[in-house]
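User: Fold this, then the next.

Assistant: Folding the first:
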Amino acid sequence: MYEKLYFFLFNRITDALIALKDGRSLDAIRILSSAQSEAEEKFISSKT
């Protein structure tokens, strides 16, 4: 489970870094915020 979450978050962080590099800070914030929520949902659902 942790491996899947790691790769999910790693890829989303990479997307956010690219957005920042391109000057799209609001996109980066949205990407990180949604990644945080999605990872939390995935983690919680894996425990039930």
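Now the next one, as you asked:
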Amino acid sequence: MSVLILEGMFMLLLIIIAIAIIFGKDLLALTVIYSVFSFAAMILYILAGAADVAFTEAVIGVISTVYFIIAIKSISRRCK
């Protein structure tokens, strides 16, 4: 499989994930989808030959996902 085809598939995946994030309702599910977006972007950067940017994306993606989950868990979801 050509690298160009793989890059196109990952770009399409990123667009689909971004649309899912925009129209999603559940915050915890959206956080998981965001981490998939970060992982797909990391793979795309590796395919493009930018390993340093891919490493930075991986680190920032993991840290922001952990922070999002901590913030969501600290919010009370009960309705009055």
